[in-house]
Amino acid sequence: MSNNPITMQQIRLILQHLIAGHSQRRIATDLGISRNTVKSYLSRIASCTLGPRELLSSPDHVLAESLYTAADEADRLGDPRREEVLGLMDYFKAELGRTGVTRLLLWEEYARGRGPAAYSYPQFCELLSRGMLLSDASMTFHYRPGELMMVDFAGTPQHYTDPDTGEIVVCPVFVAVLPYSGFGFVVALPDATIPQVVKALNACLEYFGGIPRDLKTDNMRQVVTKSCRYEPAFTEVLDQWALHNDIFLRATRVRKPKDKAPVESSVRLAYQRVYARLRNEVFHSLQGLNAAMRTKLDEHNRKPFQKKDGSRHSVFLGEEKPVLHALPSETYMPKHSVEAKVQRNYHIILGEDRHQYSVPHVHIGKKVRAVYDADTVEIYYQHRRIALHQRNYRRSGYTTLTEHMPENHRSYHRQMGWDEDYFKSQAVLVGPQTAAYIDRVLQSRKFVEQSYHGCVGILRLAKTYGKDRLEAACTRAMQGRVYNYTVLNRILSAGLDRQQPPTQADLFTTPEHGNIRGPEAYR
Q1: Which of the four pLDDT bands, split at 50, 70 and 90, describes residue 336?
Q2: DSSP of 86-108, one letter per residue?
Q3: Which of 24, 112, 191, 446 is 20 to 30 A from 385, comparing alpha carbons?
């Protein structure tokens, strides 16, 4: 029988030809269909309890019932092989999920011992596909405005380049969505620890401007301590966060991705409309990366739907945001407190990241207390705050404030901060001739860093001799070919800056002297 049913109009034309007594060949030619299809439908008509004229006068649903449903049911009841294969469908589906198992292998195992009575391989595959399609039927969920928020981590992280070390820093990406409107949120995090998850949840609620009734999360280890279909257990921090925001926590079933289909779809859209549009850009900080991601996120939320009016943003503003609960007056942020000893380098080590933070050097050797959250690190000595830093997650790194250094360390630190722009800006303050001379000094060495100490000496000459004399000395020295501190120091110490600078004639005219031979001596 035909696997591709023809239209009801064609079936009625076949019935007309049949009643008129036309042959199969003529029916196939007139209707433009194959003779095998005509033969198949004539067989179906012959097996019906109603005659051709009664079928022709019947409504479409009666005609379909007579030709398809009854005939197919008869086929099923008359073929015990079908019931056997369908009965093994759960087994076949489970086996296909195992490594290396193919449909051909399953068919070979099924056909072994059955001989000619077994289905052929194509028949087996067709029946297997139909059975799996029926078993994989998905249910359509209908969400109410403000009812639910779903969150998950994207499988593919983002990254930025550390400007100090050149290291590629990988950042997990947190994704959230309100399923009713599809209004989404994405943010890159330093890591996927629970403090960062809480920080991302807070940023998400702030972006939405309100709180939905429920939060549904994947069974990520940061937030779920015990997976259970009916009563999952969440971490204490997340329970506190939910209580603070008056939101109910829910978790998906284990290995059931369809439970969070909306957020899975949002992850896919984040790849297409955020990741892909930033793929050729280079970022040097997490803040810069997130700023660019936020721009692309806003564009995505405002992009018009393809098959209906409006956008995610318009549906969110018009139908969902008005029913969200108000945000609490204070943002929940878990804080941690540890004791630490100030080391000889006037830093303490935050063990969680192995990152070091500076304190005023006068506290070397003292015990202090560090209170930190996802954003800041506060350091206290005897209940008095002595340092405040932005949290840095670079392992084994240093966060140092200049004011915490001893004076000799500050001088070295300033030296380490020298660059071309610094010396050029300082020279401009003296005058244009000094600026021009400093520029040539910087260009005089193969490695520009080798000229920094000379530039420091030149700028200090302004303090010793005054800006006007240094400007005059630079004017005189610019006529030579050597540019360094020594040349200027000699000009100033000898007072040559006060004399009339030599002219081109003075510099290149041969002096009169008895020991100097003229051109006539070489004839």
Answers
A1: confident
A2: HHTHHHHHHHHTSTT--HHHHHH
A3: 191
